[in-house]
């Protein structure tokens, strides 16, 4: 028996609205009929030149980062690398719209967003090399660990954002997920809780067309993934995911809305994964070269470069400077990743729990005994 059911109870009993009565007008929540764009439209004239140049430099750096990480995988320096080539605009914009105190909740494909947020590229790749549970301190970086299970980071983002609001902290959480993650239960639960609690969180869905090999049409019959926002009671925004300026504007507006107490927003960015899902995937089995080539004409770097060149904001020297800075980053990453790390197997048990459980202590003792036995054999004892 609950308190409200007890005889004589004076506990508060809220009166819900009738089930047929909408709790909010759905019209303002609906996304646009087509993805919002800035580059190549009249809206581009109002874009900040300094911001556009910074976005360009970050995109060029991000493309080179993706290429270098992919090469490291082929060389055996990484166990796996999910490339975000073609999706750099989503990655960069997500990082740049956040303030220092805000939190980023990335998925496994979002190492570029983590680097654009300011994290050391080597630390961003440590998990994918298999050296550590995660390669950085989440609290210090304000970046949650790279999340491999689909969409499980979304409820965590909502929880952190809700807790920050209750404490009165000026914090917004931005959670990134792929279109495949929207088919998971965690996606539904996160959006539902976020809307009910009016948590200061922004969900960025990078719709790159495929959940590994499953096309979007086999995942949902909705008009768009952004339309799903309406069912939870939050605004849905549909944006060109290769238009860095449009993404920065839409995500920036969503972040500031959340910061003002306006609640969550679901942003769907239409983009494309130019490379395979990971180095373990053969993308030619489920898509053709013609489809990939068509998207090359809508490359995020080329779109922004055209805009900057047309407005006289970028010349050959500027292109060369961006490329040289990106190459310097890649050379440093290559050199540091080619150095064999010094690892302690006992670190497996570090930072798992604040206080180690009995089972964890038992496993730790077992591993220590095995390592000591191996050392004795090597010493000939």
TrEMBL record:
Keywords: Oxidoreductase, Pyruvate, Thiamine pyrophosphate. InterPro entries: Alpha-ketoacid_DH_E1_comp (IPR050771), DH_E1 (IPR001017), PdhA/BkdA (IPR017596), THDP-binding (IPR029061). Residues 1-33 are annotated as: Disordered. Residues 67-343 form the Dehydrogenase E1 component domain. Its cofactor is thiamine diphosphate. It comes from the Bacteria. This is Pyruvate dehydrogenase (Acetyl-transferring) E1 component subunit alpha.
